[in-house]
What we know:
alpha/beta; Rossmann fold; seven-stranded mixed beta sheet; two-stranded antiparallel sheet; 9 strands
Amino acid sequence: MSQAHYFSQDVPPLEPSELRPVDFRVLGHAGVQLVGAAGVFSHGKLDLGTKVLLRTLARLGPSYGLPAEPGALLLDLGCGWGPLALTMAALRPTARVVAVDTNPRALALTKLNAANLGLDNVEVAAPADATALTGIVRLWSNPPIRIGKAALHELLTTWLDRLAPGGAAELVVGRNLGADPLAQWLGSPGGGARGVTRRGSAKGYRVLSVTPS
């Protein structure tokens, strides 16, 4: 299992004996231990990019910039064991939070962590099961840059095209992994001529806020 790639859809089912503590506490749920497992991205801790994203969004205020409307559709793209989806759900308990990942282990872990936190507004879905999702008000993601430029562009185009009018995506991307060229592409006609703003930059990462064209 140690060699399983975390983008893979072909991984063994998650066994209880494989669960490991994760060094992360969701806002307002400091006493609950989250879990990860091998074969899922950054399974034992919060990765640096996601940490930078959350710290940057925290500067927007206690709500992290999330809308207050009940039923608002919030999406975590590439959820891993769920830190972004769980944070969204804790901040906005009346929102509908959907966590999407290709890796079934990631979905199982996010579902388990949400249940342990008592967050009943979190859903998990593989991309093929989430094709009807539209009207996304906020999308948070540490996107899988290493899948390659063409695949990444296709992935982002698919999901950014589902943003609601007035919606936004908050992405964290490593500078050395092409954050600036990606921002340029997203703002170009080929990338959908979207609005792109750099929210912040720290520890080798850029946080990009992307709005519909």
